[in-house]
Amino acid sequence: MGLPRGPLFWLLLLLTAACSGIFVALYSSAVESYPEHRSGARNSTSSRAFLGPKASNFWMSKSTSCRHPLYPAIQRHPHFRALFDLSTPVLLSGGLFTQELWDRLGQHKAPYGWQGLSRQAIASTLGLLNGSESSRLFAVSRQRLPRCIRCAVVGNGGILNGSRQGQNIDAHDYVFRLNGAVTRGFEDDVGTKISFYGFTVNTMKNSLLAYAHLGFTSVPQGQDLRYIFIPSDIRDYVMLRSAILGVPVPEGHDKGDRPQTYFGPEASASKFKLLHPDFISYLRERFLKSKLINTKFGDLYMPSTGALMLLTALHTCDQVSAYGFITSNYWKFSDHYFERIKKPLIFYVNHDLSLEATLWKDLHEAGILWLYQR
Ligand SMILES: *[C@@H]1O[C@H](CO)[C@@H](O)[C@H](O)[C@H]1NC(C)=O
Ligand SMILES: *[C@@H]1O[C@H](CO)[C@@H](O)[C@H](O)[C@H]1NC(C)=O
Ligand SMILES: *[C@@H]1O[C@H](CO)[C@@H](O)[C@H](O)[C@H]1NC(C)=O
Fold it and tell me: How many A from CA of 288 to the centre of ligand 1?
């Protein structure tokens, strides 16, 4: 979850601890298994609000095969019903780039916008994301998708050490992983399947540096794997463009990097997805509006990579399970499942993990997702 940072982060951590009381409010919540928890679910209406009326019959019949569809659970919950807007675009594709968008996003810093970023760099990247596959997460056409899209999102939390959840995770239609998601040697606990890998260039490269000795020696690759770029910096746009073109990074912080080193030989727009800055703003405003935003650390704060992936899944899948995410008893476990010696989870000021813990617990209790706990 927390990536190793320099001394500045430790200092900021201490300052924040002093001024805002960061540690998670602990709740003792009984571990519920999904079937019992959701046995009252009857309404199997389509969870795909973004589809037009024409598609709704199809999705209606499709989601009846979901045992725990998240959309009806959202509809039943007064608080979450007001927060979720499933029509918000999750991905940014070339077709959405307009002068109006440029002007509006120019008012916000990354990852929420483009303030101070080069228009040429943004426009040339988005120009490559112009195919229809760039606006949707799932590669196959709707008709060929599973009748109920079941997704597992696998965070890297130490709770997965010894969990033996690998088979359960791999049984989902799509599996999201992120940052230092090493699977080799941990198959019994975390499985092997990977459909999406989420990251910022910064977190990806930090993970390779920090966890190489723990087995994370390369970014996951595979024919069916898609990469989800989180646009936290101009670096992400520049790397994304170079990855699609299959050329070395021509400029900036990562100049000279060969994207194939990270993402494998396939260079094509369909391999790469880009989260929409508006989606990240929406998530921050509605789900993760941390008190940190109004402190002097406000510019450092953003939802964690795991949070962005889990909320992406909640806005695109029909049913979602979360593994390796922070729970109220996080202190019992190591920071990451792949550590050899227990290392406590550190609450850095760039994320608000206590707020995220509360959100996962509340979504679990509302039946909107299922959170692995032990
Ligand atoms: C299911 O939920 C939808 C959307 O909220 C609603 O229109 C419909 O009446 C509900 N159906 C049942 C059987 O509750
Ligand atoms: C997308 O842009 C590329 C490069 O400009 C162009 O070759 C391609 O035809 C475009 N594709 C679509 C679907 O517009
Ligand atoms: C992982 O789990 C094993 C078995 O429960 C335990 O002995 C070990 O200390 C754990 N590793 C870490 C890093 O917590």
Answer: 28
Task: Kindly give, in sequence order, each residue whose CB lies less than 8 Å from that of residue 238, ignoring residues fewer than 6 positions away.
Answer: 121, 125, 249, 250, 251, 252, 254
| Ligand with smallest separation from the Cα of 84 | 1
Using DSSP, state whether 33 is helix, strand or coil.
coil
Query: pLDDT tens, 93-104?
Result: 999 999 999 999
Residue 128 CA, closest ligand 2 atom number: 2
52 within some domain: no
Atom number of ligand 2 nearest to Cα 132: 13
CATH number at residue 154: 3.90.1480.20
Q: How far is the CA of 43 from the centre of ligand 1 (A)?
A: 6
In the chain, which stretches have pLDDT less than 70?
A: 1-64, 141-143
Give this prediction's pTM: 0.83
Atom of ligand 3 nearest to the CA of 343: 13
- Domain extent, residue 178, equals 70-86+149-233+271-371
The Cα 274–Cα 186 span in angstroms is: 29
For residue 323, being part of any structural domain is answered with yes
The pair of structure tokens assigned to 156 is 């890297």
Cβ–ligand 3 distance for 344 under 6 Å, the answer no
